[in-house]
Structure formats: structure tokens, C-alpha cells
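Problem: given the chain below (575 residues), write out its structure.
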Amino acid sequence: MKIEINTQSILDLTVSAFFVLTSMTIMRLVIPEGNTTIFLLRGSKLVGIVFLALSVIFLISWFFNRNFKFKKKISTPNLKDLILVALPMSPIINYALINNEYLVASGFLFLIGIPLIFILFFSYIFPIIFSFIASLKILMISGLALSFTVISVAKIYNNPESHILNSLLVTQGVYLILSFLAVYSLYILDKRIAYIAVIFFTITGIIINFLNQSKDNLSKIQKPKRFVEFLDNPKNKIIKKKNIYLLVYESYADLETLNHYGFDNNEHLEFLENNDFKVYHGIYSNASNSLASTSRILEIDGNLSLLDRYYASGNAFALNIFKANGYKTIGLFTSPYFFGSSKISWDEYYPKESATKMGGMNITKSIFEGNFEFDIFEDDYDYKDYLKLKKKYLTSNKKQTLFYTHNRYPGHSGNSGKCAPDEKQKYFRGMKKANIEMKNDVLNVINNDPNSIIVLLSDHGPYLTKNCRNLKKYDVNTINKYDIQDRYGAFLSIYWPKDILETENELFITQDIFPVILSNITNNKNLFNKLKIERKFFDEINWSIAGINVFNGIIKGGMDDGKPLFDKRSYKLPN
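Solution.
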């Protein structure tokens, strides 16, 4: 269909540019500060230049077309045009599918409802005002394209490898322009084609995400037989009923890895050793994110059959063993991030809220901010309150207690796919905070409960090498042992009370913690070998490190294929 370029068409484009500029300004006032407001500020400057240029062209055209008459008539959208709302809503539906574990019905309605109101206003209601002198259809589709781009900012920002010309702003601009051109071209050609195309685009995205989620979340049956068989063996009964303290420090790296970064942690390790802690060197986790790593520690299994949060919520094999032996389990976390839709089975836990109760609100906020941060659930929780509760539990000395906690420091990179200029310095500051916290924790327990077992560990590495994120698009031959340590390497130090002499077992991974504890507090010295998990990576290795794995401390694949993951180790490598 041929488009006639006349004064009215130029006016339509000019008013559309002014409409986008005005919308961007209003959006900046109502959207939380973040990547989206940065895009709107930078984008509005460019749109402002376009508006000025179009205004000059329109004035010239009007000068040569003195018979031109302004429209002077308000238009309203066709009801069928609401079908086009599926375009900007498609990222929202996909976000809901990806984050379904955080959502209950009210959270889902919040996640869908707020963006829908946002889209309806900027795509259908606000354009009516400008339709007095310009085409409603170009205004409406401009609003749809702008809404689609704004809601996609988080997705664009968190996938830097897909940035056009390695530029975030250019990619955002392409989203805006192409979505407008595609929908507008189809709309003026035939509305029905535009409707079908938008619906097809949305349904295709939903199906792809649904299939991916179904593959990731495929659940099998729990393994009650394993638990029953464990309890049926009288040798497995806990006879040394020590209090157990598991203190997890977020992304705390091994000494060798820290040396590679340029951080000297020897003084802190000397403090631990002087307080009778054994530091285990060369330890790694079989997973590279908090939930995947800690859930495997609690379940003592590499191949998990249910979602990670099921186990983190207290429904785990190791915890059930201690409960069956008269222990009280306590889980202390900095936020509800670790709690999903599963029943929370810790005997005592904090915080009481589930992530599902605040999931819709936090995810919606992150969408409009334009970035899915790993700590989105911590905004409403004061870390000082967490530390006070932690001290209370560490000094209470209640008998037959298993206390598990996961802190915030030193923390890992922002996982944006690009290292911040001060990424390492920020981590080093976090290490200093973590060391102070760890010293306080150690002294609190030892001074009040010296006959307990104290485990200090981390969940995974801090992601400070290469792009400070996953390495799925890197050439496998460019990935070295420090890149693997950086993602899977972990810290481990254990305080064994004087009546336990632990020298027999070779600890490779953090998931060896419960097997080694149980072998030392029961009459079954073979429990370590029976319970220990295969010493390899179980989570998304293709995503994290381009398919490289580590078997029994030896790297398989990549630049350092066949070499040990760590040079300094507390264990012997197999022959």
C-alpha cells in the first residue's frame, strides 16, 4: 500500500515524536530509578532532536501548502485494536512464566495488572489527547512500541552479549524503531494481519518459555525409601549429639582464588587456625548459584528431583535425619529469597514471609527499573536485624540444635554480563566485611558452645573474571582454571570439638559436609563413603562454563584440560 507523503503525514510524525517525548518524560517521573529511567532520559534527548527536525519540516510543508487544514477532531481506538496490547504484554507473560515459583495468585495478578494499566494508558488513553490534530493509529502504535521497549529493558540489559554494536542504547533504540515499523506497516496494510502477527509473536514466546521451564522444573517423586533405609540401620543413629552450626558466607572465595584476584586473606585464615578451625583448601561446589549449591548440601544429592527452594525451605534429607534424632532445625536468612511455594519445614526460621507473598511486587518493580538484581527480595530487610538474630542464635547454646544461616557478604558481581570498573574493589570491600562478621560469629559460638561442630563455608564463587557472568558464548579454549574457580570454587573451614578427630575422609566439595559430620557423630564410619556425592558439576555447565566439568578435582575440557582445578589442596587427587 502506497503511503502519500503530505503535510498531514508529516504532522502525524511530528506529533507522534512529541507524544513519545512527552510519554518518556511522564514515565521518568513514575518509574523507579534504574536502567529504564536512564534509557528514557537518554532516549528523550534523541527524540527531542527528531521532534525539532520534524517540526521544521512540517512548518516548511505548511508554508507551501496554505490550503492545509488541521484535523481538529478527537479519535478513539477501535475495540479490536486492544488485541495489539499482546505485544508489550508478551515480555510480562514470559517474566511470569520464568518466575512462577515466586508467584501466588495475588502476586500474579499484580504482575499482570500494573503493567497492563501502564500499557493501556500510554498506548490507548494518552494518545486520544494528541489525536485532535494527528492520526490516532500512529500515536497508538508509537505508545505500544514505547511500552514494549520499556518493559523489555530488563531483558535487554541482562543479555549484553546480544547488544547491537555492543551498545545498550542502540539496542533499546532498535527495539523501539523496529517494533513500531513492524506493527505500523502491518496495521496500515491490513489490521487483521497486524493482529495475527502480534498474537503469533506472543504465543511463540510463551510456548518457548513454557517448554524451557517444563524442562528445568520437571519433577520426579521424592525419595522416602532412602530416608527410611537410613533410619533402619542402627549404626546410623546419632550418638554424639553435638550442636551443628552451618554458617554460609555469600560467594566467599578460596585462598588460591583470592590470591589470583590480588586479595591477601592469610591473616584471616591464621585467625581461624589459631581458634582450632581446620581450613580445607581446593574445595569447590557442584553448582554455581546459591540455591543449586546449598540445596544439594542439604539434600546430600547431586541429581535433585524437585525445585531448589523445596530443599532450602527445610524439606531436605540431611535436615530430616537430624529431626528424627531429636534435633531442632533453625534456618536464618537475610530475606525470603530462599523460600518458594513449598511448605517451610524448618522448626524455626526467619524471615517469616515467603518470597511468593512479595514476588509479584518485587518482580514488577524490577521490570520497570530495568534490571533483575539477585537481591531484589532484600530491599525491605535490614541487615542489622539479621546480624542481631544471628548473634542471638549463636550465643543461645540450646541443646540438640542444627543452625543454618546464609549471609550477604562478601557477595558476587551484579551478573549484568559486564564487569563494573570497580568490580574487584567492591568485592574486596565485601571480603573485609565478611571477615569481620565471620570473626564475630566464630567467637560467639566458641565462647558459648565450644563442644559444637562449626562449619564455615561459601556457596559458590564471586564471578569476577571474563564478563563477570556466565561463559556460555566463550570459546571453551579461552576458559581457564581461574574462570572455573571463580564460579564454582568455594570456601570451607570446620571446627571439630576435641572428642572428634577428623583425619580419615577426603573432602573435595561443600556437599561433603553432612556426610563427614554424620560419619563422625554416629557409629557408622562408612557413612562418608556411602553418602558422598559424585565430585562433579551437576547444574547448568553449558550455561556457566561452556560445558567444562571437573571430576574428582581434575578439569575436563577448556584451556586447562587434564589439570587440577586447584594447585593448593587439602585432599589427594585420584591416580
